[in-house]
Amino acid sequence: MQGKPRPAATPEQALSAMDHLIATHLVGQHEIAQQVGLSVTDLTCFAYVIEAGENLPTAGDLAARVHVTTGAVTGILNRLERAGYITRRPDPTDRRRIRVAAQPAAVARVREVYEPYYARLTELFANYSPDEIAVLNDWFTRASALAADYLEEHCRTD
Questions:
Q1: How far is CA 118 from CA 32, 37, 77, in A?
Q2: Residue 103 · residue 84 · CB < 8 Å
Q3: What is the rounded CA–CA span in Å between residue 133 and residue 148?
Q4: 100 in Cβ contact with 59 (< 8 Å)
Q5: Would you indicate the residue range of the signal peptide (predicted)?
């Protein structure tokens, strides 16, 4: 598939469009979190547990990803466990650590909410050529790394 002609844009216009996407996303995350009975931070933490798949994260891994203290992540995990979203499992190689696993029924609940949105995004990607999607993927990946680095440099929790 060949890409469609796109209107010219300046970096300022692209930043503005990104700001609008992020703001809409933040509002959406809040709404979705409410639908599934979680806070945004708890939902974000659960998303990281899902993303990890069989490579179960530790509480410390999650604290670093969500950018909270290990004490705060304990509270998050307590809430997620009480709500039936996760289970804690002993680390097979280090008895002092626990690993966090997603409950399949909870994963299904969250995916049910997100799948229609992801289907729409997939339709949107169909309007772009493979080369354009590669550029988008590169930009999202590099912008995510830049954001994580900035967060680490300027918003430390320790």
A1: 14, 21, 26
A2: yes
A3: 22
A4: yes
A5: none
Q: What is the pLDDT of residues 12-62, one digit of tens each?
A: 999 999 999 999 999 999 999 999 999 999 999 999 999 999 999 999 999
CA distance 78 to 57: 15
Long-range contacts of 97-105 (CB under 8 A, 24+ apart): 97/58, 97/59, 97/60, 98/58, 98/59, 99/56, 99/57, 99/58, 100/49, 100/56, 100/57, 100/58, 100/59, 100/62, 101/49, 101/56, 102/46, 102/49, 102/50
* Of 1, 17, 72, nearest in space to 9 by CA: 17
The Cα–Cα gap between 158 and 156 comes to 6
Question: Would you give the DSSP letter of residue 101?
Answer: E
How many helices (H) and strands (E) the chain has is answered by 6, 2
Calpha distance 66→29 (Å, rounded): 14
Angle at which helix 40-52 crosses helix 70-82, to 10 degrees, equals 90
What confidence category does residue 83 fall into, taking pLDDT thresholds of 50, 70 and 90? Answer: very high
Q: Note whether 140 and 134 are within 8 A (CB).
A: no
Task: Decide: helix, strand or coil at residue 1.
Answer: coil
